[in-house]
Amino acid sequence: MSGTLVLAGTPIGDVADAPPRLAAELAGADIVAAEDTRRLRRLTQALGVRISGRVVSYFEGNEAARTPELADALAEGSRVLLVTDAGMPSVSDPGYRLVAAAVERGIRVTAVPGPSAVLTALALSGLPVDRFCFEGFLPRKAGERLARLREAAGERRTLVYFEAPHRLAATLAAMAEAFGADRRAAVCRELTKTYEEVRRGPLEELAAWAEEGVRGEITVVVEGAPAEAPGAVDAAELVRRVAVREAAGERRKEAIAEVAREAGLPKREVFDAVVAAKNSGTG
């Protein structure tokens, strides 16, 4: 009989936020796969828990190689608990490969829900949260980062990003360039920790603030694009937006559909603009 894979949320700051079931799962698992075994040790000490099973490291560097080993253990009946440094596994953290492997083998996968920096930042941002899009970490290279942001410039859902503190000022400046200087945003720093801070304002203002230097774990929440009135975007801009998406790897058909959705236009109108630009040599 196969075992069970348990994804467990861990505190993103305050250890008192640990889910009540986490201690029991840590104590009872046959194998605990941890992103950082040293952090796991500090967590178990804080919770007063003694792990009786085997502890293995499971992080970005060995995730691909270790997944088959853990999948085999699950197939043989082990209860495997997966924890990351903070928050839920698989959300910009290791976990996806193991979940996929378990699902492929028909192994049960369950979770111990816990703290999430994404949801906490959304709730504190003061921005609309009825629809949102999690984008994780942006590329480190400036050109690639700006291109990715330009792809999302027309997204109407609230956007959530993770960012390293030493790249925050450059990222906020790139966001101001791609989304507009006045687009509202919130920078959430050190959530649930002693020096928790939520800074809200236009992107240009936040970029200037970040130039002074910011420390800690960062989550950035950005307001979605305003709905555009039909006809507000001219043909040349439609063609440009399609070209940006194609350059990023989208097929033309999908790029046209997305640009039409963003602009509130029929797909045929965007298609015609692209074809006209191509025939005139400007596309």
Topology of helices and strands:
Elements: E1 4-8, H1 20-28, E2 31-34, H2 37-47, E3 54-57, H3 63-75, E4 79-83, H4 96-104, E5 108-112, H5 117-125, E6 132-137, H6 142-151, E7 158-163, H7 168-179, E8 184-189, E9 197-202, H8 203-210, E10 218-222, H9 235-247, H10 252-263, H11 267-280
Parallel strand pairs: 1-4, 1-5, 2-3, 2-4, 6-7
Antiparallel strand pairs: 7-10, 8-9, 8-10
Helix pairs in contact: 3-4, 6-7, 7-8, 9-10, 9-11, 10-11
Write structural notes for this entry.
- The protein is α/β, with parallel strands linked by helices and 283 residues long.
- It contains eleven helices and ten strands.
- It has helices at 20-28, 37-47, 63-75, 96-104, 117-125, 142-151, 168-179, 203-210, 235-247, 252-263, 267-280; strands spanning 4-8, 31-34, 54-57, 79-83, 108-112, 132-137, 158-163, 184-189, 197-202, 218-222.
- The strands form two sheets. It has a five-stranded parallel beta sheet, with helices on both faces. A five-stranded mixed beta sheet has the order 6-7-10-8-9, sandwiched between helices.
- A hairpin with a 7-residue loop joins strand 8 and strand 9.
- Helix 3 runs parallel beside helix 4 (96-104) and helix 9 packs across helix 11.
- It starts with a strand and ends with a helix.
- The relative contact order is 0.12.
- The model has no long low-confidence stretch (mean pLDDT 93).
